[in-house]
Amino acid sequence: MQSGEKIPYVFKILLLGDGAVGKTSLLRRFIDNTFDPDYQSSIGVQFMTREVRFEDKNVKLVIWDIAGQSKHTTYRHLYYKAANGIILVYDITRADSFEHLPRWLGDAIESTGSDIKIAVLGNKADLTQFRAVRIEDGDYLARSINAEIFSETSAKSGENVEAAFLALAKGLVESNKKFADNRED
After folding, report:
1. In a 10 Å sphere around its CB, with 0-12 CB exposed, 13-18 middle and 19+ buried, how is residue 111 labelled?
2. Bigger pLDDT: 88 or 3?
3. Which pLDDT score, from 0 to 100, does residue 42 have?
4. Domains of the chain, each with CATH number or no CATH
5. Contact (Cβ atoms closer than 8 angstroms) between residue 104 and residue 88
6. What letter would DSSP give residue 42?
């Protein structure tokens, strides 16, 4: 993208899930295509941005990586405001991280409202030999909460990471265009 070019779409996306499911690793893989096997847990909140293009339009994604440890619960909701999308992440080798997704979603919906695009990502697909959550269960959960996207990803290998983030971004652009078209009528 050329500098100075107008960005008609800017979307805030929340990256939510328990600690150590790989949220920050997924974000780093999407933003700069890197993976750090020695990464330490996030403390608090951080955000990163990336610009992408859909239908000859620039789209800026501002992705907020919210720490998953319970000690950060009291202030998480402060960062949820004005979010356009949510990416719920669980570790396919940890059933508890999957079972906690409805709580993560409920907390976010309370602050953002229900008209939000959702993706569900089962991370660490490179560790299928240690699988604790069936792919069918992840898909069922995604359908039951009307998620736009369900995918199993691997921040380590990069498998499905780019595609999942871009699919959510495309859904956001399409819903925003429909909203704008309806306002003009």
Report:
1. middle
2. 88
3. 56
4. 9-184 (3.40.50.300)
5. yes
6. P
> Which letter, b or e, does each residue of 122-135 get, where b requires 16 or more Cβ atoms within 10 Å of its Cβ?
bbbbbeeeeeebee
Condensed to tens digits (0 to 9), the pLDDT of residues 6-55 reads 888 999 999 999 999 999 999 999 999 999 887 665 556 889 999 999 87
Q: What angle do CA 63, 64, 67 make, to 5 degrees?
A: 145
pLDDT at residue 183 in the model: 43
DSSP 151-176: EE--TTT-TTHHHHHHHHHHHHHHHH
Strand 57-66 relative to strand 45-54, pairing: antiparallel
Are the CB atoms for 59 and 166 separated by under 8 Å?
no
